[in-house]
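Researcher: Structure prediction, please.
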Amino acid sequence: PVAVLPRMRMAPVAADSVAAFVVREIEADAAEAGDADRAVAIRGPEEMTGAELVRRILDRCGQLAGRSPRLVLDLPYLGRGMAGGGLIPVPAEVDTVTVENWLDRSS
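Model: Predicted structure follows.
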């Protein structure tokens, strides 16, 4: 089996880190009567492609979403913006949980 992903540079972040970040931001806004229209961003500490992330998960877990592709490819079918890091927010809060940390917690 083969997995084909769009070529995209990203900084993956754990969902529980995002949830905790959102709660902190909401609580801070409520305490300070902050600007309800402001934007916030969070990212993980490591930059990688989607294919690299999938390979790391497969190396550790053997499967992803019930599938075990032997070959993981990334193709540039969603444009240069995503391939060049358009999914990585700057400026952003940088979480400390690495992919390895997340995999350790998830196993």
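Model: The chain is about 40% helix and 15% strand.
Researcher: Thanks, that helps.
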